Amino acid sequence: RRVLLLGEGNFSFAAALCGAQGTHVVATCYESEEEAAGRGGAARSIRRLRDSGAEVVFSVDCTKLKEHFSPGKREFDRIYFNFPHCGRKAGVVKNRQLLACFFHSCAEVLAQEGEVHVALCNGQGGTPADQPRREWHNSWQIVAVAAGAGFILSQVHPFKAETIEGYKCTGYRSQDKSFCVEGALNHIFTRSTAPLCFTPVSCKTQLGSQEVSFQVPQVLVDKINRGFLEVNSSHPVRTIKEKLSAGLSQAFALQNISSCLPLLHQGHPDGVCPSNIFWITLSPGEAPSTEKTSQGLANAVLFSHSGQDTDRNVQEGCPVPQQFYLRPSLLPHAQAIIKKRAFSPGILQVLSGPVFRKCRITPHSLPVFHEMLLVLVVSRGTESSCIQMLVDNIKTTLNSLQQGISGIKPSISLQEATSFGTELNDFAAFERQLGEIQHFLCVGTDPDPSGSCVGVIRTAPDGLKSSELVVVSASLNLDLLAMLLCGISDWRMLWTWDRRFLRQFPEGELRLFKSFSLYPPSYVHDVSFWVPDGEEFDEVAFHSLARRVSGEMVVSIQLRDNFQQPGTGRRSLCYRVTFQSCDRALGCREAAEMQLHLREEIQQHLGVTLR
Predict the structure, then answer these.
(1) How far is the first Cα of the chain from the last one, in angstroms, to the nearest whole number?
(2) What is the pLDDT of residues 504-519, one digit of tens each?
(3) Tens digits of per-residue pLDDT, 231-240?
């Protein structure tokens, strides 16, 4: 591998590396050869480097690396820069500028899988790894500076100068006064994945008896048809689904019916707030005729406000409302199966697939996730024992999974819906909109044993003509389960395109996740506006707009002020928007551009007046 060392003072660090097998060292410094050779011990180190076959290059500017190396000699696997400094009494701003230019220069000569190692004195980096930690404005802000050039901090560990044979730290530009290396840290940066280009995407799905196509909402473009549940996938959500299925098969006869469930529903979901729905317009010429739609109702999933209007319209030959939306739940598919009596009592039906719900922005609020729906038709009077069997089986499987994941000890509990607190997560709150719930399934992890709702259990006749039969259904959020079991703090990581995520789960093995992007920088912007008179501001629409504009780079939106102007009664809202990525580089300039775009969009689409 090719290793580039920059800013060498006396070349003692390079000399310590030059003997490593399989490593070709290119050692450089900013000074000329005459200036460098006059430093104490430098001449001896330079001779040792040349004798070992290493290259020694002088007068190298770390901000213009492309100029010093021909195209065939770039592609360095590692670049080291120990204790960079502008010199003299340069302040933090100038040193940030030096690092910014250095990282941009590295991007031009580093191999795709290469690393950039930067050693800084204690406190300079401005990350939580510094002890004590400086105030942000008084640090070099190395992670944010590197992000501007497309790098993420992947590791940070102590710089142990005493373990490097013959190494002696010098001051800036080899001055006699050396840097203080006590508590120094080595920061290891890697390339980030490139920003996603959200080009329009069309998707085909079955709607009744007809195949239709539609344009995918921009915020879901990178999440549609990802195939996480397919046979060849090693994604944690599939592993958990397969493990749960295997466990349930020990107690129930299973039938998997998830293969051809349509993505689109028609009509309007009863009881669900329209703001929580991804409404869809079919591609031009794709809208099915009333006749075809009516003929296909036996296989389609339809809703209406009353629950009976659609059926009556079809019976009377009236037009069916042409409203379409991405499925927010698999429950209607199960209800359609029950209504057609396409089931066998005692057989556990397993449905699974992605579902889509507009929601507010939080680390555990998922606009798309993989649902696993279990449906069982049982004799009336046995539903309680069946529910207990289901829950016990799920508990056993999850406890078995966690044994191989160090440090995570989930506690699984079944809570009565009537005794469950009012503070529901978005998953549980939306499930309540879909219908009455008997039990919540919660998984708690230390140090949060109170738990997060990952599933709901319902019992209902659901269209059964026989009064002797009852339907038991359990809906599980596989994404939340993966986050809780594997220690994933941000749902967006489950959808990353960075291959380093799936590498941590070889052949579907569940492990405790280790982030490859440490201490990602965050950028805070405020936006305030007047809301239209007499109108209620739709916060979910605002959050959804922020998701779309930023490409899921907004991690938090908080209401800071709600002001009503005396006399006129006009209302003004002020929100604090925090931009942060969990898996790729996000620089301050890119975040500022997102904020400007967000201001334009909310004024155009939400009808507000910016302040």
Answers:
(1) 55
(2) 999 888 999 999 999 9
(3) 999 999 999 9
